[in-house]
Amino acid sequence: xxxxxxxxxxxxxxxxxxxxxxxxxxxxxxxxxxxxxxxxxxxxxxxxxxxxxxxxxxxxxxxxxxxxxxxxxxxxxxxxxxxxxxxxxxxxxxxxxxxxxxxxxxxxxxxxxxxxxxxxxxxxxxxxxxxxxxxxxxxxxxxxxxxxxxxxxxxxxxxxxxxxx
Amino acid sequence: xxxxxxxxxxxxxxxxxxxxxxxxxxxxxxxxxxxxxxxxxxxxxxxxxxxxxxxxxxxxxxxxxxxxxxxxxxxxxxxxxxxxxxxxxxxxxxxxxxxxxxxxxxxxxxxxxxxxxxxxxxxxxxxxxxxxxxxxxxxx
Lengths: 165, 140
Prior knowledge:
The complex is a heterodimer of chains A (165) and B (140). Chain A has helices spanning 11-14, 39-54, 56-64, 107-113, 129-139, 152-162; strands at residues 2-3, 29-32, 66-73, 78-85, 88-93, 101-105, 144-146. With 165 residues, chain A is an alpha/beta fold.
């Protein structure tokens, strides 16, 4: 299993600007199940790792979450399974069995999901422009979430971890 | 009039197109990092030498866009690398840049949460490239 190494981003710092805060003492672990993680797997794993290491509230969510979440991007025919195990994430190429939730949507909506703002009580905001767009995709079937009803809390936790806002 | 792909004239046209875009002006608010595009050589497509495009983008404005060596672009805060053919696909609307990144056709280096936060701005920049009439070296 490939272990991703965490590197602080140097560019902004070298220009005297605030670099993204990275908590190198974080216990969060992101691993890859495949010897050659797909570009999508690397991107999602990298995004979650950066989020968790720079926001203590996201790290708390990460430490508490136990779920297998599949994401299938319909317009590139690629997907991943994110296996969260209380402080550890294993990213698998493709959809693996026994998923708690499966999100199926296009690439643009995946980006929108990670741009959802988090509002009061840690709930995703669905009333601003991005949120309305996501809600509309859900209503029109362009965003499908399997296993949603019994796992709304899990979905909210995943959304908080995933969100860059 | 068409400009040569990834030439100084192309860079100027790109900068003008970005600065004409009200969508970019709004979506790029708060952006303060340099972006480098590395166009890898493909001699069989008559694109014989890798080039680097260095974009100084600030707060919804393109302050400068220059074409130079690939090594210059690689020093930027965010670097997107792809062979000539891929960039041509992006600039001719045959490849969506977001999908290209998720598929690994365009390789991205830089802070992922930041670039994801500015998805709309990067999509608009891609649209700006599609509005420039280009003379492609493999179509001569």
